[in-house]
């Protein structure tokens, strides 16, 4: 049985409905959910450690299901990937995020400008014209060059490294940023890392947080210096406490993201936070 955390509705109840039935129900619902506006991105701040100002936000999808309550990506992204609905979801989150980013940038005149990052799934990169989507969204929204970023995991790019490199090069040339997500969790290939055109490494929270014995993983320092040697900036994920934050800064990470700086918030709340007017 699977449980949602916090005060979320418990969804897969043992002995009640089978997971298979629930999955089918979700699959059908997912098709309509987008049109009905039940799915939307929330935005989690990414903080510049030097001065603890907001450098950007990561868009994370949520589904407010009419019966099951708020669902996290783990509950519906896999279904979206298998059914192909991830393509429409992906375009939606790109468009929506670029629109918010443009509003933040109009309100905040800072150098470098505020950025936004969006997660990309395997199917979007390898079996769809992602390049074209990114181009369209960047042109229409008028966001600053380099401020709309895509986050991709190692396992995704390693599915087809040659093809991924080609597409990613062209996406970079368009002026989008590229972050390697969840670094350290996959089968990292240092040789490939050098060939992929990433500008940012996001270190997975499992390398950021102290382990069961309370020790900070020793590999953290190596990952940070590797990233810097390759000319990349570092975002540490899962910064939950003040001591996480201080150590990450001392290790030379440029940015941190995590509950220490805030949970993901709605588009409206993010606008308030950066001083942008609410949606017209
Ligand atoms: P991710 O890209 O690694 O996103 C970070 C996850 O860590 C988010 O979970 C976030 O809420 C959570 N998190 C943030 N700060 C902390 C912290 O301090 N401590 C801990 N323990 N966790 C923290 P979330 O929102 O449930 O997203 C899960 C995954 O779903 C994401 O992992 C991403 O891979 C995927 N996802 C989310 N939105 C999208 C999307 O639009 N498209 C695609 N393809 N995948 C998405
Ligand atoms: Ca991510
Ligand atoms: Ca991540
Ligand atoms: Ca993850």
Helix-strand string: HEEEHHEHHEHHEHEHHEHEH
Unreliable stretches, pLDDT < 50, 5 or more residues?
A: 1-9
Helix content: 40-55%
In angstroms, what is the radius of gyration?
Answer: 19 Å
Spatial strand sequence of the major β-sheet: 1-2-4-5-6-7-8-9
Q: What amount of the residues lies in strands?
A: 15-25%
Number of helices: 12
Q: Give the end-to-end Cα distance, rounded to a whole number of Å.
A: 43 Å
Bound molecules: ligand C2E, calcium ion
Number of strands: 9
Instruction: State the major sheet.
Output: 8 strands, mixed, barrel
The helix/strand class is: alpha/beta
The overall pLDDT, averaged over residues, is 90
Please state the overall shape, judged from the principal axes of the Cα atoms: globular
Description:
With 280 residues, the protein is of the alpha/beta class. It is 44% helix and 19% strand. The chain has helices at 19-33, 73-83, 86-107, 122-126, 130-141, 154-159, 161-174, 190-195, 205-208, 219-229, 242-250, 267-274, and strands at 39-48, 53-65, 69-71, 115-119, 148-153, 177-183, 200-203, 233-236, 255-256. The chain has an eight-stranded mixed β-barrel with strand order 1-2-4-5-6-7-8-9, surrounded by five helices. Helix 8 (190-195) links the parallel strand 6 and strand 7. Helix 1 crosses helix 2 (73-83). The chain binds ligand C2E and calcium ion (3 copies).
Outline the fold blueprint.
Blueprint: H1 19-33, E1 39-48, E2 53-65, E3 69-71, H2 73-83, H3 86-107, E4 115-119, H4 122-126, H5 130-141, E5 148-153, H6 154-159, H7 161-174, E6 177-183, H8 190-195, E7 200-203, H9 205-208, H10 219-229, E8 233-236, H11 242-250, E9 255-256, H12 267-274
Parallel strand pairs: 2-4, 4-5, 5-6, 6-7, 7-8, 8-9
Antiparallel strand pairs: 1-2, 1-9, 2-3
Bound molecules: ligand C2E and calcium ion (CA) (3 copies).
């Amino acid at each position: 049985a699977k449980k949602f955390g916090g005060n979320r509705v418990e969804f897969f109840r043992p002995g009640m409905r089978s997971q298979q039935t629930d999955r089918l129900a979700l699959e059908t619902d997912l098709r309509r959910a987008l049109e009905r506006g039940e799915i939307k991105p929330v935005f989690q701040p990414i903080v510049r450690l030097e001065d603890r100002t907001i450098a950007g936000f990561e868009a994370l999808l949520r589904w407010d299901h009419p019966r099951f309550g708020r669902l996290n990506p783990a509950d519906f992204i896999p279904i979206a990937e298998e059914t192909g609905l991830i393509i429409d979801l992906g375009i939606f989150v790109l468009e929506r995020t670029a629109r918010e980013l443009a509003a933040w940038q109009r309100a905040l005149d800072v150098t470098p400008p505020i950025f936004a990052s969006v997660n990309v799934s395997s199917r979007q990169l390898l079996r769809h014209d992602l390049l074209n989507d990114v181009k369209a969204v960047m042109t229409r929204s008028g966001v600053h060059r380099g401020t709309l970023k895509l986050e991709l995991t190692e396992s995704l790019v390693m599915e087809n490294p040659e093809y991924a490199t080609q597409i990613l090069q062209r996406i970079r040339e368009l002026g989008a940023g590229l972050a390697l997500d969840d670094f350290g969790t996959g089968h990292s290939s240092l040789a490939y890392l050098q060939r992929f055109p990433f500008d940012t490494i996001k270190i997975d929270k499992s390398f950021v947080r102290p382990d069961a014995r309370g020790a900070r993983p020793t590999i953290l320092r190596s990952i940070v210096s590797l990233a810097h040697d390759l000319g990349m900036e570092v975002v540490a994920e899962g910064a939950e406490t003040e001591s996480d934050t201080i150590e990450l800064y001392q290790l030379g990470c440029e940015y941190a993201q995590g509950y220490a700086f805030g949970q993901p918030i709605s588009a409206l709340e993010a606008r308030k936070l950066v001083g942008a007017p609410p949606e017209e």
